[in-house]
């Protein structure tokens, strides 16, 4: 297995996996927590998650949670180093777009939010939100890229490992696809189903799918690292037994076998 491209050592790998888990938890939980804070402030479910920026006078808890969620997500995605350069670029862009959603609030509508004050460049809000969603879809489709597949191919029964990698993409992509289809075609149904916050649920399906993907990818990587360390230990043990079983004269005349390559954890 080629480790020349430098998978991170164990301590850094653990940090990455912890960040991946925290990001997954935030993606699943923070939009709902933001909506709950609005409900506790006396407001029904808003049309979109972005509406929580203006739902309470002077922002209040809903705005704090909304901005905190996006800045945390943006920081993790931008600082996270992908498993290869393309994976890294996808997450860097996703992080920038998450910052953009927080930095450029949605256009201020006094009819919808009587206390709102116009924010910075609201024209950039919708493009940032749309590109964040598409970056999340790209991250799931890429699935760690060829570097991760190369490692999984080095294991016993690689097809099983690759099948597991493909399997973790299914639920996120289904949720994200439902979200995109709903966004594109929900308008004819608004008259028949009034009061449904269509865009909020579109956004949440995207965040939920992305969060599920990150958590399941982390679990797969944890299992792969355990398998890699196990295989490396077996190879080392086998080499030691073969060396011990060799006749003493043969040990002196034959060049020593190259050292067994050490396993380097996938970050």
Number of helices: 8
Global Rg = 24 Å
Q: Can you write the helix and strand succession as a string?
A: HHHHHHHH
What number of domains?
1
Estimate the mean pLDDT confidence.
Answer: 87
Report the major sheet: none
Percent helix among the residues? 55-70%
Class of secondary structure makeup = mainly alpha
Per DSSP E runs of 2 or more residues, the count of β-strands stands at 0
Uncertain ranges: 1-6
Span between termini: 16 Å
- Strand share of the residues? under 5%
Q: Can you tell me the overall shape?
A: elongated
Short description:
The protein has 267 residues and is mainly alpha-helical.
Written overview of the protein:
This protein has one domain. It has 8 helices and no strands. It starts with 9 loop residues before the first helix and ends in a 14-residue tail after the last helix. Helix content is 67%, strand content 0%. The N terminus is likely disordered. By secondary structure, the chain is mainly alpha-helical.
Write the layout of secondary structure elements.
Layout: H1 10-40, H2 60-79, H3 85-103, H4 125-142, H5 145-153, H6 158-185, H7 198-245, H8 248-253
Short descriptors:
8 helices; 267 residues; elongated; mainly alpha
